[in-house]
What we know:
With 120 residues, the chain is an all-alpha fold. Helices cover 72% and strands 0% of the residues. The chain has two domains: 10-40; 43-97. The longest helix is centred in the N-terminal third of the chain and has 39 residues, at 2-40. The N and C termini lie far apart (113 Å).
Amino acid sequence: MGSAKLKKREANEGLEAFLRQYGATLLGLLLLALVVHDIFGTHGYLAMRRTQQEIKKVKADIEHLHKENVGLENEVKDLKSDPRKIEKIARDELCLAKPGEVIIKIPQSQQLPADPASRP
């Protein structure tokens, strides 16, 4: 029974000597590994910044789409209730005319270029 205690004591002394010699280095390597993981890991600092940038981009896209929806809602409301808007679409896009009116189309090749300075 005494030899078992002796072997155990020698093992403990060997472990203590190993930790005295390499303990600080092992602790430093462990801390370095934790810091690297916190920066470059899947949930680390860089991943969080990337996620925050994506969130900002998605919020900007949502705001842009919201503004576009408001504009489209106003256009739908105008198309349902504004007779001048309906008439403009009928004349421009469908080439319709009132009774007694004549539509004259000029081919694109013969049209003069639009000069923005000449407009009133």
